[in-house]
Write a structure and sequence with these properties.
alpha/beta; 5-stranded mixed sheet
């Protein structure tokens, strides 16, 4: 299942089709055999970059029914953005010329839950967990201003805010969105159902409908 260069709309369609197979229990397990392993040893041409949460239940290659060399995956707790993340994503779009960046949030996110708890109690966690909470906090503030209170409501806000943040922080991403070489989409995964929904998009994703439309 294709190593050809895809457009951003085609890449989104491919991901959503794979997720539908996963939800329906009809996974094809593409590009997961010995031949594929040998093939991609010579180089990689992933069609999508997934920036998601480190949660062990949200493994991109599984939930999108993909294989070796298909996805370039960057993960942090609560998909927080730092210099290492931006550098990794810019490598993906500049060097590997990936046409699609997906910010993948999920319901019940512990990092978001910890940040809400810190906001409500006024007590920050210790160690480097504090760093995670500090970077999620702006999304919590934005959500509360909009009247959103539950963890899952804040997750949706945080996922969309992260997609916007990537385009604002990275000149390389912004330029590629502007000239049509790349798109950034926010998606959200539900742990129990296994389904991914498309929230918002920055850049051209064709006729695909987001929940904001």
């Amino acid at each position: 299942m294709t190593d050809s260069v895809l457009t951003a709309p085609a890449a989104v369609t491919e991901l959503l089709a794979g997720n539908r197979r996963f939800v329906d229990g009809q996974r094809l397990h593409p590009n997961q055999d010995a031949h594929r392993r040998t093939q991609v040893a010579r180089g990689q041409k992933p069609f999508a970059l997934i920036f998601g949460c480190s949660d062990s239940r949200v493994a991109a290659e599984i939930i999108f029914d993909r294989g070796l060399g298909d996805l370039f995956v960057v993960r942090t707790a609560g998909h927080i953005v730092d210099n290492g993340v931006l550098g990794s994503i810019e490598f993906g779009i500049d060097v590997l010329e990936i046409p699609l960046i997906v910010v993948l949030g999920h319901d019940g996110c512990s990092a978001v839950g910890a940040t809400i708890q810190a906001y409500d109690s006024g007590e920050m966690p210790t160690g480097y967990v504090r760093h995670v909470v500090e970077l999620v906090m702006l999304s919590v503030l934005s959500a509360r201003t909009a009247g959103l209170r539950s963890v899952d409501e804040v997750v949706t806000e945080h996922t969309q805010q992260t997609a916007q943040l990537l385009s604002e922080r990275s000149r390389a991403i912004a330029e590629r969105i502007a000239d049509g070489r790349c798109a950034v989409v926010a998606m959200e995964y539900t742990l129990a159902e296994g389904e991914v929904r498309l929230l918002t998009a920055l850049g051209d994703v064709g006729a695909l409908k987001t929940e904001a439309q």
